Amino acid sequence: MRTQPLLLLTASVLFATPAIAVPSHEITRPQHQLSHLVSQTHAPHTSLWRSITDPIIRNIWRVSQDESLSSRPKEHGKKDSSAQLARHGHEIVLRFNITTSVESKALSEAADTLFLDVWEYTDDWVDIRLSKDIVPSLLGLLPASLQRAHTPLMQERELAQAIADTYPSPVSDNLAPTPERYHSFGPQLGSKQTEGNLFFADYQPLSVIQPWMRLMASLFTSHVRLINIGISYEGRDIPALKVGVHPTNNRAPTTRKTILVTGGVHAREWISTSTVNYIAYALITGYGKDGTITQLLEDFDWVFVPTSNPDGYVYSWETDRLWRKNRQQTHLRFCRGLDLDRSFGFEWDGVSTHTNPCSESFAGDDAFEGIEAKRLADWALNETENSNVEFVGFLDFHSYSQQILYPYSYSCDADPPSLENLQELAAGLAKSIRQSGGHYYRSAPACEGNVGVAEKDKGKVFPRFESGGGSALDWFYHELKVRFAYQIKLRDRGSYGFLLPREHIVPTGKEMLDAVIHFGKYVSTQYELNEHKEVEPAASSKAVLEDEMDSRAGFEAVIDEIIDEELDQTDETGTGWELRRRRR
Ligand SMILES: [Zn+2]
Description:
Helix content is 40%, strand content 14%. By secondary structure, the chain is an alpha/beta fold. The protein is globular, with a radius of gyration of 24 Å.
C-alpha cells in the first residue's frame, strides 16, 4: 500500500518545499466571494482537515479502524496516575478568602516560610496547594481572621483523581469504535467538526504536538512555516508556527507587523498549550475560507509558540503533573527550576524577592538566567533587528482565574503609555469571550489582578501577594515596544484550577479564538492596515490543497514519515519513550 506512485508523489509534493520563508507571493484569494463565507462564530473550518489531524493522532496511538480495540494495552494515564497518587495523594488545595492587607501579608509570609505552592491569587482569594500535614503549621502562622476563612478546593483524593483525569484517557475508552467515531475519521465537508477532532479531544504531549506542528507546516506551505525559537536548557527545540501571507505590491510595508501568541510558560498550565494550538489550527485552516481570518493572515504574521517551556512541559507529563518552572539546575541541588515569568529583564527583582531556588517563583540569580525566557527574548530581538519584523501584539496564555491582564505587572504605580487603548481592547476581549461561551473574564492591570490585594472600601491597592517583576508581559510591552500586550489567564476560576478537564479544551479554544479575532481586527484598525487595500483575485488555495490531499492513504504515508522522523530524533536524545509507548 505504501509504495504506490501516488503516495510517493503526494509525499514529494508535501516535502519538496520544506521550511521556505513565509512566501511573498501574491495574495491567494479564493475564487468565491469571501463575504458569503464569513463565519459569525469563527469556528475552525475543520471539515477537510479533520482528515489530516485525525490520522496523525490515530497513527501515533497506533489505532486502526478495524483493529480489535480490546486487545490493546491501556497505556497513558493509568500508569502515571499511580506515580502521581504517590506524589500528590496526600495533598489538598485550600482557598483563602482575603479581605485585608494584613491577611494578605501574613498569608504571603507564611507561604514563603513553609515553601508552599501558591496556585493562583486574585484580589479576593488565594489558592494554596499543600500537604495535609502542613495545614496546622500554616494556620498557626495566620491571624485569627484567616483561621476559618478557607475552604478546600479539592479534597485529597480528588486532587490525585483530577491529576489522573487530565491525562489522555485509556485508548480503549478514548477511541471506542462507535459509529460516530468511525465517521469522524473521514473527511466531512460542511459539518461542525471541531468537537470531534481527536487532536483537541485530549491534552497532547510534546511528542505528539511537535509532529502535528510539522504536519501543519508540510500541508499548508502557502501560509505556514515551522520555526525554532531556540534550544531549551535540556536541549529541546522550542517550536513555533509562523502563519501569514505577504501581499506583494508597491505599497507593501517594509516591515512585517507580527503578533506573538505564547503558551506553556508555566508547565502545568496545559490548557494554555492546547489553546495556542487551537487558535493556530483555526487560523491555518480558516485561511481562504473565512474572510476575516484570511484578512488577518494578510495583515499580520502570527507566531504561535505552544510550549514556551518544553522541558517543564515534558516533565509535567512524565514525572510531576503539577510542575510549574523550567528544569534548570539551580545552586541548590535538590531544587530545580526557574520561574520563566519572573526571568525577563525588565524590572527584574529576583534579588529582593525570589532568592530561594525552592520557591515556585524563583527568578534566578540574574535577569534572563532562565534559559527559555532568554531564548524567546533573543529571538524576538533578532527578528526585530534583522528580519524587518515589528511586533505589534503579544498574547501570553496562562491559567487559571479567567483574567485579562495588561501592563504593568511589576508595579501599580507606573501607568503604561497606551493605558486607554489597553483598557479598551481588554474590555473588547472580555466581551468577545462572554458572547462566545458565556464565561466572564475580568480585565485588570497585571500588577493588581495578578499580585495585588485591593482594600475595596478605600479603593487602594495593598502590598503585593507576590512580586510581578521580570514578567514576559512587561518586557514585551516596554522593551520591545509591543503596543498591545496581554497575559490571559484561562479557565477556570478554581473548580479544577490547573487540572481543567479535557472537556474544556475545545470550548476554551473557541472563546479564545473569538477573542483573538477581535484582537486582530482591533490592532489592524489601530495601525490602519486595511485602508486603500486592493483586492486581488487569485486561485483558490483550498482547491490546490484538496488536490494535494486527494488520497487518504497519501496522508498516512506522510504522517508515518513524520512520525518516523520524530522517532529518529527523539531516540537520539532518549526522550521518545512516550511516542514509542504509544506506537506499540
Ligand atoms: Zn502561568
